[in-house]
What we know:
Elements lengths: L1 H19 L1 E2 L6 H15 L3 H13 L34 H14 L6 H15 L8 E2 L9 H7 L7 H10 L4 H8 L6 E3 L5 H4 L12 H10 L10 E3 L11 H7 L6 H8 L4 H9 L1 H16 L23 H8 L2
Antiparallel strand pairs: 1-2, 3-4
Helix pairs in contact: 1-14, 2-4, 2-5, 3-5, 4-5, 8-14, 11-13
The chain binds 2-acetamido-2-deoxy-beta-D-glucopyranose (2 copies).
The site of one 2-acetamido-2-deoxy-beta-D-glucopyranose (NAG) has 4 residues, from α6.
Amino acid sequence: MAARLSLVACCLLGLIAATIAQIGLQCPPAEASIRDTVFQNFLKDPTSPAGLLRLHFHDCFVEGCDASVMLESTPTDGTDVERFADGNDNSVRGFEIIDEAKTRIEAVCPGAVSCADIIAVAARDSSVILGGLFYQVPTGRYDGRVSNRTLANERLASPFENIDQLKRKFANVGLSTQDLVLLSGGHTIGRTKCRFFENRLYNFTGGLPDPRLNAEYAAALRRICTPQGADPSPTVALDRNSEFSFDNAYFRNLVANNGVLNSDHVLVESSETSGLVRFLAQDPNLFKVLFAESMINMGNAAWKTRANGEIRRKCSAVNTRLTTEVGHIAAV
Ligand SMILES: *[C@@H]1O[C@H](CO)[C@@H](O)[C@H](O)[C@H]1NC(C)=O
Ligand SMILES: *[C@@H]1O[C@H](CO)[C@@H](O)[C@H](O)[C@H]1NC(C)=O
């Protein structure tokens, strides 16, 4: 029943998206170039798909899905760009993979595919490589010209937050509580640094671990994450024993109090979300269908258009505004 309802929701959403977007990139070979680039990098580093998925999230939550997260600082903005925000600095990754795909696409279709679209398609391909469901990514995004570290600090969800804070951050980009639960399911792959949850291991009553965390698992995590805080911070899988499989084990782990981050655990703790968490823990296919739907919802966040965006030539920098280009940029 729930599955049938969600299929209806999926197709209605598809129709709405189609009115603002196109299906398929404005360069037929581009989808294959992205898929191949993501796959080649996965062979070199099996953790890279998780990085690309997170990159898409961190892009869409700040200024909408417009590749603002990829802009490098320029002499005028110093370090004041998104990539230096608390949730990104030394942790957001995958830029070089997007750059690689962009270079391949520019060689065949110059100026046709935005970096924002490449990130969205690469995120889809990343989940598919590890067992997620294929879905059509609506495309036609333009790249933004603004990257603001302060805004990123305000908008990115933090691993220390409670359910109300998380709901607010998701609502900022038009996402529901259901989207919050499903998109948190992206933690079915990937790792996190100890510093994002070390407080749960050492800073509760009498220096004991957070009692909401499975005691045996907490003891195992304390052996990996030392209290002094090693540099670089060690990492652990977000989905215990299942970090390379895009499956619903993340939700089963939440139910067993094996959620690593506070922001994971609150999903099974809150009465508003625990029902859905338990439901997803029991139905692997439902998770995959609903995750794809929520990814499309997130990918729809605040698109730039030709009026306020551009197709960047290089993903790390806005296009230089040569006189010959101004007409193109201003044209709607
Ligand atoms: C960056 O975002 C902050 C927080 O929303 C805002 O106050 C500030 O004006 C923005 N800076 C620029 C240069 O737009
Ligand atoms: C430990 O917890 C206290 C109270 O919640 C907090 O003020 C402090 O910053 C925490 N310290 C660390 C190292 O997380």
